[in-house]
Amino acid sequence: MRADRPxxxxxxxxRLAFEKGFTPSGLARxxxxxxxxxxxxxxxxxxxxxxxxxxxxxxxxxxAASMSWHDFADYLAGETKRGQEGPERRSVAGRIKVVxxxxxxxxxxxxxxxxxxxxxxxxVGSPFADAGPHDxxxxxDSAVYEPSFRxxxxxxxxxxxxIHKGDRVICCTPSPIIAIADQGTENGWRVTTLSGxxxxxxxxxxxxxxxxxxx
Length: 215
Description:
By secondary structure, the protein is α+β, with helices and mostly antiparallel strands. The protein has helices at residues 7-19, 24-30, 55-64, 69-83; strands at residues 95-100, 122-125, 136-139, 154-158, 168-171, 177-185, 188-193, 198-202, 207-213.
């Protein structure tokens, strides 16, 4: 297991938490740790250097996520690979397009390729280190998805990312939803909402993978 930057350990932990359906604090709680154990403020020492998680902490987190060291090494290898990609992978000048979740049903926000129409979106400084040129952010202006996603969080959405079963996706139907992908069909994606409802999202409606989220 190799990381070129200490931050990649934390990036891999964040991605692990997200893909297992937790916030970082939720994963810490599931592991029997203090809920603040993975907070950003706990990741740096007083002199600014990155503080690496202790072995006991890592073992507890991996047990809670039902993940082996070998599988976590694959996560870490993925973070290392992304960290080595060129600047064309990242959003322009650290900025990212953003819109409120409640506005996602506005069809004009997306072009025929289901990509954001730039002048209809706001831009903010990106909190995501690995946002691609077509990625966009959704600001959750509702508490309906708590505790999975906190109200006020930013979700990073990656249109170019291939959707697999179990991925969390944004479905930009007339009534936008966040759901878990089940199966792709010729008519669209079958998904399960976070409240357990089964739906089919037609091919004509954008369904994009959520790849990261802020706390």
